[in-house]
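Design review, sub-item: ligand-bound model
Attendees: FS, YL, KQ
YL presented the inputs for the 2-acetamido-2-deoxy-beta-D-glucopyranose complex:
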Amino acid sequence: MGYWAKLFCLPVLVFALCRGVVGDPKFPCYFIFGDSLLDVGNNNGLKTSAKANYLPYGIDFPQGPTGRFSNGLNAADFIAKDLGFEDFIPPYVTVKRKDVIKGVNYASAGSGILDETGENLGERFSFNTQILYHQEVISHIETLQGNETYTQDHLKKCLYTVQIGSNDYINNYFGPKSHDKRINVTPAQFATTLINQFCKQLNWLYKLGARKFSISVIPQIGCAPAERKLYGTEMACVKEINDAVNVFNAKQLNLIGDLRARLEDAKFVLPILDVPKIGPLQSIGSLVIGDPCCKVSTKGVTRGQCLPINVTCGQRNRYLFFDGFHPTELANLFYSRQMMLVISHLI
Ligand SMILES: *[C@@H]1O[C@H](CO)[C@@H](O)[C@H](O)[C@H]1NC(C)=O
Ligand SMILES: *[C@@H]1O[C@H](CO)[C@@H](O)[C@H](O)[C@H]1NC(C)=O
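KQ shared the predicted structure:
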């Protein structure tokens, strides 16, 4: 029995709900591309500071720390559950060869649209590298299925989610050594560079058989506790960062419009991830939104990550951020619900 079934088919739940959970998934396969928001352990063996395979990460996850940047499940996990998959979509680095047919998670913390993004943190699978790995996985699926036409049909039915771009801002444009870049490159120029690359990457995925895309906007990373602390702002968010990100998001909306028109047999949805508006009080009702739940590192390459001590805020389901950048399981549930609203249009 898959993990979901164990978790959700408690005796108190009605049979119909259990059947919905363990029945046929709504897509035969789910491929995940992205950064730390969706990473499920791809960085564990890499030489990088962008890792989360230690407590308190995973404190509420059944297997403990796995590399997920959260206390528990991330949005990809919730979506897999909602879509009826028996288990989490496994990370590329440890997926069993026969399981790739159902999907693979390529997401890698620190990675971005641009290959060089995140190099300040160490090794990572850039979006290009992730697509290259996907190409290899497809060759393997063809071998397993023994019929290229069949495999192409299979790949067209899969769900593809992409959540990338935050690091192109945090660890590139607004990175520690990028001061000169910001003087010489405007946010609009930088966003155009990203969009041109992103366009090529989405076309590449299309050529590899992807037809059902959910492409997330870059969240309002200027509101992350780690960025607010770095900029020493008393304001709820760092406006300069959010403004630059919003230039990208507007261009991405146009890009998706173009792709919809040009690739008629493909479907694209764009979930909007609303960060609740943060007022001066730093909290909404009883939800703490301005502070991280764990004790975070305040400088160097680990800035914003949880310190490796097994101590957290008392009530983890009262916090929006688990560390200085990443959501708690509760917030991931909230984001995944927003994503599912639009993903349902791809079924
Ligand atoms: C390969 O798959 C296609 C599409 O499902 C099917 O129509 C065809 O009969 C298959 N070919 C063989 C040799 O099994
Ligand atoms: C970490 O802390 C949690 C919650 O306080 C506790 O349940 C767990 O046993 C601790 N794990 C280790 C390895 O100390």
